[in-house]
Amino acid sequence: MSALAYGVAAVLLLGGVLGMVRSHDLVHTVVCLLVAQSSTYVLLLSIGYQWGARPPVAPNTARLRGPPLTDPVVQAMALTDIVVSATVTALLLALVVQIHRRHGTVDPERLRALRG
């Protein structure tokens, strides 16, 4: 199971990076970045997953016997990753809107005023 999850994370990351490299549209670039960031969710959750584990909400006496509990830290990190990803995506899309308003295009090749 974990090898499959690592493979899915790698495919998502490579697909997102390839899309960013080949993109001729800033909105497409932002969406490809979002796909690449989603690979981290799969990776984090596959690291923290345990077969047969129970949720981490259990009384203290239940922790001593029975199946192991899942690690809530990994789940919290995945949730934090989702929130950060949504914030970065919103910021980048707002920047794309401002670039479109000022320059009339979202094609990086046509943005001559941004060249150094």
What does this structure look like?
The protein has 116 residues and is mostly helical. Helix content is 70%, strand content 0%. Helix 1 (2-22) runs antiparallel to helix 2 (26-48). It is elongated. The N and C termini lie far apart (48 Å).
Summarize the structure.
This protein is mainly alpha-helical.
Low-confidence stretches: none
C-alpha Rg (nearest Å): 20 Å
CATH topology: Helix Hairpins
CATH class: Mainly Alpha
Percent of residues in helices comes to: 55-70%
> Any idea what the shape is?
elongated
In CATH terms, what is the architecture? Answer: Orthogonal Bundle
Number of distinct beta strands: 0
Q: Kindly, what is the distance between the CA atoms of the first and last residues, rounded to a whole number of angstroms?
A: 48 Å
Structural class: mainly alpha
> If helices are DSSP runs of H or I spanning 4 or more residues, what is the number of helices?
4
Mean residue pLDDT: 86
